[in-house]
Amino acid sequence: MRRPTPPHTAARGRDRKAVVVPAPGGLSRPLPGRRPRCAVVGGGIAGIAAATILAERGVEVTLYEREPTLGGRLAGWQDRLADGSDVTMSRGFHAFFRQYYNLRGLLRRVDPRLDRLTGLPDYPLRHSSGLYDSFARVPRTPPWSALGFVARSPSFGWRDLTRMNAPAALPLLDVRIPDVYRRYDRMSARDFLDAIRFPLAAQHLAFEVFSRSFFADPGDLSAAELVLMFHIYFLGSSEGLLFDVPDEPFPQALWDPLAAYLRGHGVRILTETAVTEIAPAPDGGHLVDSAAGPWHADAVVLAADTGGLRAVVAGSPALCDGDWRSRIGALRTAPPFLVSRLWLDRPVRADRPGFLGTSGYGPLDNASVLDRWEGEAARWAARTGGSVVELHAYAVDPSADPARLSRELVAQLHRVWPETRAARIVDERHLLRADCPLFEVGGHRGRPTVDTPDPTVTVAGDLVRTEYPVALMERAATTGFLAANAHLRRWGLRGQTLWTVPAAGRSAALRLLARAGEGTAWEGVGR
User: Fold this and answer.
1) Which residue has the higher pLDDT, 164 or 15?
2) Quick check: bond before 143 cis, omega within 30?
3) Measured between alpha carbons, how far is 129 from 429 in angstroms, rounded to an integer?
4) Crossing angle, helix 256-264 and helix 45-56, to 10 degrees?
5) Are strands 132-133 and 125-127 parallel, antiparallel or unpaired?
6) Phi and psi at residue 351, in whole multiples of 5°?
7) What is the value of pTM for the model shown?
């Protein structure tokens, strides 16, 4: 029987230079009397993080989620295949990097040793030209990580390093917030890479794959987000670029246990319940209106996705102030993405990786063999002799025909793994969505912060701008805790301690070297 990859043996501790963000001080529980009440709008990572620490501190919490299940963009739902198999469908592969300290802290509430996460042995990247990069043997600690990548990569060699625009690239050695946005937010990721003369082959093979993880084409993505990602995952952290994945579908591994944990702390979870309006209560606080009826809350955490946040704010004409509501209304979502999951009648070749990032294969951005690491898929594969493959296409043209696009993904799969040409598709599911935040060029200033003009209202999610070096799922978890901490501080209750990767360059020597690049053409770009 084929089994998921065993947990990675590498230490899962924190980088010795990781930065602690102390929790707000205060009581561990409210004093006898009326408990504070908080509404959390959105049941994804950010909302669950906020609800968790609030409930742990004795706050009365109602968690609203418009979809039938928790998890947000990592939700899952039951489905049945043509062969009668019950399966869990989702939006697919997500990498749980070891820099995700706060997300991992959330998961440890129900899985103290993170046994439900299993490590994949590599982060391989393949271009249609034949170039292939691997991070399995690249050292994890900077600057050896960068030097090791150059030494091993076929797409970026020592000669390429000497051809780069060194003065413009040197600030990468000392990335700081908010300076990274002042410098780079008004140029695209592609323009930045061209300007520093980053080798074209490496752009296609590495940075294009990374930038498209933000669901945007590199020409539309803010260079600041790419530079920050470079710091978080590569040159600013010693955790490396290897990652973990859940060993079962998201609901079974993550959200069902966390939902039980929240209910055990008294949280009222309302799924399939969209919030329609948040209005001032006559006696103070807020009236949160939904299909479940109005509920009085002393505070609110808005942890919905971009479209959901816009909808709630549009329906709440008295929330915060007009300028804030206008900025929320102007937020944009990234282009659509397509997930195609295929149940094949025969196995993919045994040496194929569990995950492969791709470039140059038309719309195909990555391919996964789920039965390498997900228990449900592995059991189906063992029972049928087949395999479960998932294909992703990001930054899809909104006018594209989904059926035609899914056929193109399968055609590209045949190019990537030729043995799949002979496989019969037993069943398939295709999911097209367009609900991820767009980190567009020049958009940083318009994104909401955790705090709002009303101290009783906070915002959380991966769309939120924050002063800490976090991104993607870790930004969602971090801002969820920060949004809750703001309310706990006002109530005199102790908050959640947080961790981040180093907030600046790792060594004094590299920081000095980075300063040599200051005063170049970048100066003033983001002003």
Assistant:
1) 15
2) yes
3) 29
4) 30
5) antiparallel
6) -90, 5
7) 0.93
